[in-house]
C-alpha cells in the first residue's frame, strides 16, 4: 500500500501525493516581451482559466493528485502527465491508481540517487 497521507512528512522525508482540483479547460499562453535597450526577448507563461460561468464550469473541474518531491517542490513530468489524463481522447475518470504507480516510480528513481543501507548496516552507493 502506498501512503498518500502527508501528516508525517518531517518523519519520512519522502515523496507524497497532493490532491488538487484542476480546471480542464484552462489554456496555457506564452507571452513575449522585448527589452528596448538590449533587444533581449523574454518569455513568460500564463495559465488562463476558462471563461465559463461557475455553474457550467463545475463539470470541467476535476480532482487529481500531483507528486511533491522530497524537497517540497512539484515533480513536474509525472504531475503534468496526471493532469493531462483528465482531458482529451485518452481521459480517465479516476487518476488515483496512475498517481500511486507514478509515486512508486518516482520513489524508485529517487532511491537510485541516495545511499541505501542494507540489513547488515552496509552502505550501498547510488547507481
TrEMBL record:
This is Site-specific integrase. It comes from Vibrio anguillarum.
Amino acid at each position: 500500500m502506498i501512503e498518500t497521507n502527508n501528516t508525517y512528512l518531517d518523519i519520512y522525508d519522502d515523496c507524497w501525493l497532493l490532491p488538487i482540483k484542476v480546471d480542464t479547460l484552462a489554456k496555457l499562453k506564452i507571452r513575449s516581451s522585448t527589452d528596448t535597450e538590449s533587444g533581449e526577448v523574454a518569455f513568460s507563461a500564463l495559465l488562463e482559466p476558462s471563461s465559463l460561468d461557475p455553474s457550467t464550469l463545475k463539470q470541467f473541474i476535476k480532482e487529481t493528485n500531483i507528486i511533491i518531491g522530497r524537497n517540497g517542490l512539484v515533480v513536474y513530468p509525472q504531475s503534468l502527465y496526471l493532469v493531462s489524463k483528465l482531458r482529451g481522447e485518452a481521459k480517465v475518470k479516476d487518476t488515483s491508481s496512475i498517481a500511486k504507480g507514478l509515486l512508486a516510480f518516482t520513489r524508485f528513481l529517487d532511491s537510485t540517487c541516495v545511499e541505501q543501507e542494507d540489513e547488515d548496516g552496509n552502505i550501498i552507493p547510488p547507481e
